[in-house]
Amino acid sequence: MLTVDPTAHRPKKSLGQHFLKDRSVPPRIAQAAQLEPDDFVLEIGPGLGVLTEELAQRLDPQRGRLLAVELDNTLLPHLEDRFAPHPHVSFLHADVLDVDPATLTEGRPYKLVANLPYYITSAILRHFLETEARPTSMTVMVQREVAERMVARPPEMSLLAVAVQFYGQPKIVFRVPPGAFNPPPNVDSAVVHITVYQPGERPAVVASEAAFFKVAQAGFGQRRKQLANTLAASLNLPKEQVVAQLTHSGIDPTRRAQTLTLQEWATITTVLNPEE
Ligand code: SAM
User: Fold this and answer.
1) CA dihedral defined by 120, 211, 266, 171, rounded to 10 degrees?
2) 44 lines ligand 1 (CB under 6 A)
3) DSSP per residue over 132-156, as a string?
4) Is residue 4 scored above 80 in pLDDT?
5) Is the pLDDT of residue 147 over 50?
6) Which ligand 1 atom minimizes the distance to the CA of 124?
7) pLDDT tens-digit profile of 239-256?
8) For residue 101, what is the enclosing H or E element?
9) Nearest residue CA, atom 12 of ligand 1?
10) Ligand 1: residue whose CA is nearest its atom 20
11) Mean pLDDT score, 193-217
12) Is residue 142 within 6 Å of ligand 1 at its C-beta?
């Protein structure tokens, strides 16, 4: 079998490779993920396998399963070699954004755990939240500033906060300094745990998710402007109509997008009823 000396691997910046070297961090991530022995865990970007090992240990080899998706094919031989004694752990060489979550997880409930490649954090969050086959929870290392945007509340909301909180409840579990990684990133990091809502638990109820996100995206287009102006311009609607509809629904048209709650975005979606 081809083996690779992991110490010889030169981290690739282009793939967001910052490997965890502080051995106290993987157990804390695994703890935050609240794994059960029979869970199906999906890991994104196992890298050299430090977090993978911690997750694998917490699963029952007979009943649990861990699938890890890695884009860097030079890491695959090392990973397959290292985890050969653990038949409940398997690897897939792929760009995680190219694979349908439903196919990856064979329709089974699963928990997503990852020290994410930061260059595609938002794309990965969207890929796994805006699908029918979303995980039951996500425990992810992200840039600290992104973590803070995910958990923000009005009047500090952002489109990312709306997108994440529509599907689940995010919580910052702990912060991680740059020195915990090799090489160290330029920014602080944080682990976020998202409890994904089951159908019927969501705080904002809408007829169409596409229309909801179209309206929120339009509203955040120019976040410093008043809501009526930015919605009218982005959705191509007469301003007087938007002012009248917002006022009628009890939403002050001079407010800024970042002050709105998810329920208020849902109300605006219903009254403006944009084409998807
Ligand atoms: N889990 C390891 C750790 O904690 O030490 C590595 C984390 S590193 C921040 C991110 C990992 O994601 C790298 O191994 C990188 O090669 C991988 N990666 C980057 N882009 C990817 C993609 N599109 N699909 C799957 N894996 C990717």
Assistant:
1) -10
2) yes
3) TT--SEEEEEEEHHHHHHHT--TTS
4) no
5) yes
6) 23
7) 999 999 999 999 999 999
8) helix 101-104
9) 45
10) 15
11) 93
12) no
